[in-house]
Amino acid sequence: MSRPPTLTLPPCARAHRLDTARGAFAVHDARPDGAPIGTALLVPGFTGSKEDFIALLAPLAAAGFRTVAVDGRGQHQTPGPRDQQAYEQRELALDVQAQARALQAFGDGPLHLLGHSLGGLVSRAAVLHDPTPFRSLTVLSSGPAAIEPTQQTRVRMLIDALGTMGMEQVWAAMQALNPPEAAHEALAPELTAFLRQRWLNTVPEQLIATGRQMLAEPDRVAELARTGLPVHVVSGTVDYAWPVPLMDAMARRLSARRTVVEGAEHSPNAERPQKTAGALAGFWSDVG
Length: 288
Description:
Blueprint: E1 13-20, E2 23-30, E3 38-43, H1 54-62, E4 65-70, H2 89-104, E5 111-116, H3 118-129, E6 136-140, H4 149-164, H5 167-177, H6 189-201, H7 204-216, H8 221-227, E7 231-236, H9 244-254, E8 257-261, H10 268-271, H11 273-287
Parallel strand pairs: 3-4, 3-5, 5-6, 6-7, 7-8
Antiparallel strand pairs: 1-2, 2-4
Helix pairs in contact: 1-11, 2-3, 4-5, 4-7
């Protein structure tokens, strides 16, 4: 679970709803002072939300990019149905396509797609469905296939709990599921309250369906390579969901740019945002 270092939007950003052909999505939308040189669409991970990218908004805007972080359907402030089929990967990928088309209508330069963790798998599926809206794909702390075995056990436990208990009850159990690597010092009360509220706002069927996707995701790296889309693989030096050497190998298979953010683990976007933003902006500027 990503823990944003702040919940305060920078002056360059605003919260609103992005209207698309597949409904409205809650977003944080940051703009540079002048005309954008490109737009970045940021897709959050499992149990995540748009707030996980707050610390990236100002530095990416300063680099010239309009940056739109989204809550996917059933995540936090974007509602969704109580139906697991609504959260199949294809449906989530089509949502990303719809978000991309809506952003393209603004004409704010080429569109760069980024997915964090589960969002990397969903973003990859969106690109494989149709790469044409996108100038590049960045997979942030996301691997080639299913998550590693220890995390599979944790996700199965969570899915089982969600099938028998309410979200309030599962919240306490969820804390025990956090990997040791993600342990931090005591959190500020407002962040603790936010993490709990985000969890309660998330549709349980979304968590069950996407959790199962992370357990069963096939290796689609070769398919992605055939699209010819420029790819950037970014991670911390340690990752509990996909081992870093696995992401190294994936980058080689894709002939992708590879960035390892020193001092970060599974959420470089929240843990080392300045370094991460610099790497992202450099890649997007290079691919045009």
